[in-house]
Amino acid sequence: MPDSLSGSTGISLALMTAPAISAHNLGHAYGDVVALHHLDVEVPTGRIGLVGANGAGKTTLIKILLGILHPTTGGVQVLGNDPAEDVVAVRNRIGYMPEGFCLPAAQSAADFVSYAAELAGIPPQESRQRASDILTMVGLHEERFRYLGDFSTGMKQRAMLAQAIVHDPEIVFLDEPTAGLDPAGREEMLELISRLGGFGINVLVSSHVLPDIERTCDWVVMLDGGQVLRNGPLSGLTETNIVELEVIDNVDLLTAELTRLGATVETHGNVIVLNTVDADPFVLARDALATTGAPLRRMGARSTTLEDIFLGEAPDG
Prior knowledge:
Layout (H helix, E strand, L loop, with lengths): L20 E10 L2 E11 L3 E5 L6 H9 L6 E6 L8 H5 L2 E4 L11 H11 L4 H14 L15 H13 L5 E5 L7 H14 L5 E6 L2 H7 L2 E6 L2 E7 H5 L3 E6 L3 H10 L3 E5 L2 E5 L5 H12 L3 E7 L3 H8 L4
Parallel strand pairs: 3-7, 3-8, 5-6, 6-7
Antiparallel strand pairs: 1-2, 1-4, 8-9, 10-12, 10-13, 11-12
Helix pairs in contact: 3-4, 3-5, 4-5, 9-10
């Protein structure tokens, strides 16, 4: 397995100064149907999750980033380049794994991925070697000479990932990369996505499966109805100011002390959930435990999920 995908087009993540993606007043309509409503976002390099329900505008946004569609209003840049003005400059620096299968059934994986490398400008002999290396990396070394039409769903997904990264892009767009996979295949794909950053490749993962984004990404753009609900680091979105602690006894005494200190408290048997606005909840819990002498069994921060955030912020209807 290669330690890097370095090549003539590779640039270290540390050397990049431009945001991965930036959009200003970005909108797109299909006739009377508005898919994107005046998006204003800036996203740093790294592993980016583009999330939302089906029809939220994710695929439309990716097609604009690829230069396949042009914005109806506003504009967008990918790594500092505008795909509407210089699509070649953008496509030289990106890879794309589309949703749905689009593989030539009568071609082997080795031939297909090698051809993809040649289309990116890599010489034929080097393309063959790079195709072999990348297919090994995605777990298709033994199957590289089999026809793609004979591949399972998981193998097809990995072959599409291989063609997306064989030319060592600076950023790769993955549109629903776990679609149709069984649990084992999904785990394999998520592991591959998580490892791409180690090869110097930025990743944008578009998915409506929110746990997949939580597993693989460190920045999230959340869309609903073509509008941005959230845009920020995953840790900032899912962290809360809520602490959950379980004690062996003295629940009422501890609850009363936490309330006196200014915490909002809920109890569920021997489990106490406390929330604070201004104070550190761990400090309040520590002080209350010391004052009451309540025997502690466990204590930890409670986090929320992307699904909780989406359901809490998406407008009704």
